[in-house]
Write a structure and sequence with these properties.
By secondary structure, this protein is α/β, with parallel strands linked by helices. The protein has 8 helices and 11 strands.
């Protein structure tokens, strides 16, 4: 792909509206396990995208999408100054040789209100990031940084951890993993998750065990199991 100029003609007002929407903030109360049950495997990032320190708080926010070619981190560094407060910066890279960001970049992102980085790549200065308490979900750490020269557009559909992510999709990440809620399904999934959690809270472990055992025994019998 040829280098292009940084896209600064974004609809700032609509971006701000998405970020400040209280409906997005409500996703921080929802475990990724509950969301994964509703959305299925296609919306869950692979196990390589994991919290780099713990215990990490659950984070939820609209995706601010970035694409960095291998060996270069310019556009992530540019995104730090363009992402609205509350955003989760999601990076497509796949680079396992150079760091996308370090302690100072993470500190500035945190100071500017970015909720987290979710990166298909590596960072460095993990001790600084951990001490600051800035949530980073990525493939790992490496001490050498990438270059800063490849200009790419911001705010395009990207692929991170095997999941397609569009700007404004809701990204929810915790110690269990990272789930992406499509923007056009936000209300549906929020309502479904709340309903599921309410039903689970009303069910005792004895009730759950009885229903679970009945289902398992029925399935075994249907499969011809005689043990």
């Amino acid at each position: 792909m040829a280098d292009t100029e940084i896209d600064t003609d974004r609809d700032t007002a609509s971006d701000t509206d998405r970020v400040s929407d209280r409906g997005i903030a409500a996703f921080a109360d929802l475990p990724t396990t509950t969301l994964a049950d509703l959305l299925g495997r296609a919306q869950v990032m692979d196990i390589g995208i994991r919290p780099l320190w713990g215990p990490v708080p659950r984070v939820a926010g609209p995706a601010f999408t970035v694409r960095c070619p291998p060996g270069d981190n310019l556009m992530l560094h540019a995104a730090v100054y363009r992402a609205e407060p509350g955003s989760v910066v999601v990076v497509e890279s796949g680079d396992l040789d150079y760091a996308l960001a370090g302690g100072n970049v993470c500190a500035v992102a945190q100071r500017r209100g970015v909720a987290a980085f979710v990166a298909d790549g590596l960072i460095r200065d993990l001790a600084e990031v951990r001490e600051a308490g800035f949530p980073v979900f990525a493939r790992g750490v490496i001490p050498i940084p990438g270059t800063k020269s490849a200009v790419r557009p911001l705010g395009e559909r990207v692929r991170c951890g095997g999941v397609s992510v569009s700007p404004g999709d809701v990204v929810v990440a915790d110690e269990e993993g990272v789930v992406v809620v499509p923007g056009d399904r936000r209300a549906e999934i929020l309502a479904g998750a709340r309903d599921k959690l309410a039903k689970e809270a009303a069910e005792s472990l004895d009730d759950w065990e009885a229903a679970h055992r009945a289902r398992i025994e029925r399935t075994l019998a249907e499969g011809g199991f005689e043990g």
